[in-house]
Amino acid sequence: MKLDHLVINVDPNYQQESEEVQQIKKAGLPYNVKKGKGTKGFKATNIWTGNEYFELITITNNDGGGWRPEWVHAYNSGHRGLICLMIDVNNIDAIVQRLQKEGILISNPERIKIEFFFKLFSKTMPWQNSFLNFFENIPLQIGFQQMDSEKIRKGFEKYMVPNSKENNISGITQIHIAGDFTISDFQMLRTVFEQTLDNENQLIVQLENSQKVIFEKAKDYSIKVTLKNDISSFIMETCKIEDILINFE
């Protein structure tokens, strides 16, 4: 398992030339607000950091135009910030079967189908997704994604531009999520992820490529994402995307 992307609900100013976007670019994260995907109901733009990315989402009408219903409802109810942490996996069927046997609530693998032009045309994405339930007290869920083939994965790389690799930022190394996690939340995480470490009020999930996700029990909800800066002598500026603080190691 490894980090793939973060799905983030954002206000429209994050998808147009604005002060917020200028701060993102100033931090060394190239971002083209004109590139992306969408339908009449949603718009998605990406900030690429190596092979991982931030997927910024705005909902442009109430039905969401084919976007995931739970996320559309959250957006329309005022939620802004991280809504889903997506994990890349090699065998999604095996993961779902194992977790369902363990009594973990997880959706069966499904494909995203986006409809266009009043549903006259549609496009089915070449990957499968499954999702855990939302945490009990935090508006966040974890999803799993498996590409149909390595060839398709490689094919997507040519679209991952502009990329922060141009500025010697090569990917996400750590995500730190603090909030009102429950005992049941932590029990679920221990079952889902095979490599975890308990540290006081923290549960640390170890992923491939030395990536890790830290879940911490805390009164206040906060999210910090750490990116790898390949030039250690160069001090990068931090920036924020809604409730997410982005810094550099």
- Poorly predicted spans: none
Helix content: 10-25%
How many helices in DSSP terms? 5
Secondary-structure element order, N to C: EHEEEHEHEEEEHEHEEEEEE
Kindly state the mean pLDDT as a whole number? 91
Helix and strand composition category:
alpha+beta
End-to-end CA span: 22 Å
Strand runs, count: 16
Q: β content, as a range? A: 35-45%
* Major sheet: 7 strands, mixed
Output the strand order for the largest sheet.
Answer: 2-3-4-1-5-9-8
Shape: globular
Round the Cα radius of gyration to an integer and report it.
Answer: 18 Å
Organism: Solibacillus merdavium
Protein name: VOC family protein
Describe the structure.
- The strands form 3 sheets. The protein has a 7-stranded mixed beta sheet with strand order 2-3-4-1-5-9-8. Strands 11-12-13-10-14-16-15 form a 7-stranded mixed beta sheet. A two-stranded antiparallel sheet has the order 6-7.
- By secondary structure, the protein is an alpha+beta fold.
- The protein is built from 5 helices and 16 strands.
- It has helices at 19-26, 69-76, 92-101, 150-157, 183-192, and strands at residues 2-9, 37-38, 42-49, 52-59, 81-88, 113-116, 121-124, 127-131, 141-147, 169-179, 196-199, 202-206, 212-217, 222-229, 239-241, 244-248.
- The mean pLDDT is 91.
